[in-house]
User: Fold TonB-dependent receptor-like protein from Flagellimonas meridianipacifica.
Amino acid sequence: MLEKNTSFFLSLLCLLMFFISTAQESNQGMANVYKSLGAYGRIWTPEKIYVHTDKKIYRPGETIWAKAYILDGITHKNGTNSNIFYFEILGPNGNTISKKRVFRDKPGAEISFEIPNNVASGTYTIRACSKFMLNDLEPFYFEQELFIGNSRVGYVEKLENRTSPDTDAKTQLSDIQLSVHAEGGHLIYGIKGAIGVKANDSFGRPVSVRGEIINDYNEVITSFDTGDYGLAKCVFKPIKGNIYFIRTTSDSEDGKYPLPTILDSGYTLQIENLGPQMIISAKTNQPNGLKGTVLVGHTRGERFLWFQGTQIHNSEYNIRIPSDPLNDGIAHFTLFTEKGEPVCERLVYVENTGNPPKLKFTNQKLSENGEVSLQFTLSDSDGAYTSGDFSISVLENQTESNKNDLDLSMKDWLNLLSDLGHEPLAFAILAEPHPIKRRKTLDVLLLCSSWKRFSWKNWVHERPIDTYIAPEKGIVINGKVTSISNPLQIVPAIISLDILGADFYQTQKRTDSEGRFKFGPFDFTDSITMVLKASKLSGRSKSERRKVVIDLDEDGPFEFPVKVTKSRDFGKQSESADKVAPATTQKRYAPGDYDFETGKDITKLEEVVVTEKKLTKKELIAEQIKKITLYNRPSFRVFADSLPYTGIRNVLDLFRTLPGVQVKGPIGGETVRIRYGVNSILLPTEPIYLVDGVQVPLDAIKIMNSLDVMFIDVLKGAEASIYGIRGANGAIAVYTRRGTGLDYAGGQGDIGNGNRASPHMLTFTQPGFDSAKVFLNLPCPTSQTISTHSTVFWEPNVRIIGAKHKTLRFCAGTSDAKSYHVRVEGITEDGKAISEIFTLNLD
Assistant:
């Protein structure tokens, strides 16, 4: 039997390869189709993000532990495009309450959120997206619901409402919204075809509706029942000269709905999904109408079928394809005319349940004090050891947080939901326990859906490359250099970047032909002070070469794309598209809301009028300086413009004018010391240096331009104690004109040429990436008691190679629980998603 199946499959492959080689050269139209599918995979490669949270239900005061996987949207292997993605949490009323920008240098990136103790109970939504994902014609960012609160009743009710309709409620016929879709896109007179029927109530929930297809003589052609999921499929053969309707019945009421337009001539595409195999039928009522047509099948852009019709097929052909060799997920079939025009399409969900990769779990109790070790073994479909990246959480079996834990799994998200779009009904169908009913119901849902990842009409005519959004690899500093007298004049210049901090970094380069520059990408988590300095390539003097302006490109905050739904017309947006307002139009906080990050309540006040005494210029400057310094007052402060500039060449020369500061040594090897500091042969005697509040080495001070300094503070003794042991020898704090943002008019300096004393130099603070907390795995024995509702163990970075991985040990002896859930999610090296829950018994 195995040899027979293998022979059949090899024959099919040979047949497909033959048609591929001949069809590619048949005509320019099909050549464009072939080219466009390749461009989708090579240039516009889709990207997917999946976020594994340690659980789905949280209580106030807990931490949300999560890991985000960024994957290739075609192969589901570790993605190579974006290293940056954006993460946010929406509150129960839809407002954005927390945003993060995260960098990943591994297959996944760790995320954590502290939940305040006074958080409002309700259903929250987490979303994740990269800028590269904005290349999609429709938003396909990750989205998942979590419940936060002391009671899970609301969350359970939401799950039940999403899973099945309220069968006890009476739905009025006038509240039913019925949509009808022809399989493949068209109904043709004289050809047996199928339609999919979707029935929803006014809230969008599926409803059970009985109905019939009738003609204009009130003759019943066939009947249907949409059942619990509000979906049904009908097959019938339209006869020329008849007009057809759908008639629904609800108690004593009747309703009529028209069918999609029936064409006099055209093409149909019908697919019967039998699980292990699919039967594909292409038909037309035109003589020799299938000659030269091409049937293309692909899964997520990876082509597996290219079948060309010939004269022997006349007006109908049938193809039988085994499902086992195909990748799991949505298979997209499209029938093209000989000129390369798409005329029919159909989606089918492929789910090979026969022999998936296997993750085996064993555990061992190491000691009586409660320490437990976990061991995993990973093998592929053939039983051979393989590798993968995973994240693992351990939860008490008795807690409420473990119920409905895999409401959304990585496998379901990657293989179906991430390609189908935001389809709430798909969640309910995926939870269907009966496999045959699940497959047939999903088939009807996909019959009523179109492929939203791209439109053939858009791709065949080549998508303009200028709309391409490049993947982000890290933090990039870019901008342009222009003339100080003419902002439109391009100035060839040398520009340098200094990164001030404990690890000083400096680099420089020439601007390009358009006067632009780019530094990076960089990866850091703390906010870092940076300095850009530019000078012309030519000029009679140093001051002449500095007559340039640096304009820094500043990206606005990332906004998640707007949701839309597309019509059955390939790539054409429906007039009644269901749109969700972008984050920019939503209120930041609602009255009585709270700040999710700080946990502080927010109260909106009535408008009031505040009056104050007008300050003098000196008082304004002193007040602004007080806001930007950490200490109360320095030992002494010197403004740079109060010093005579005779003999001052650099900032170290300014230091020589400061009382109590000694600068010794030859040029290039200077040392600085504050008198009355520590005198020791063994201990360091050098003070710490700060530029605009950021600690830097002396080398960074030496290269600064003295004209950019606004004032210098010297701190010693008790004044320097704010810096702890680092300030034992005192501190010298340098404040630049651009870094402070101050001017002598008592106002704030603007970014740009306006109020910048040195427009050829720009000092700014660059925010870094958000970092996650480290899960504290308590050793055994411990006196600290773990909350009965908290996550017992969380490990986001587990690399399993066969039976080898780092040892996972955790302490289970701090609670009375004897049974635990071990939740494992991740991706194998060949792109197979794994979502498993193991039970750990310690009796």
Observations:
- The first strand starts at residue 47 and ends at 53.
- The two ends are 47 Å apart (CA to CA).
- The domain at 173-353 is CATH 2.60.40.10 (Immunoglobulin-like).
- The first helix runs from residue 2 to 23.
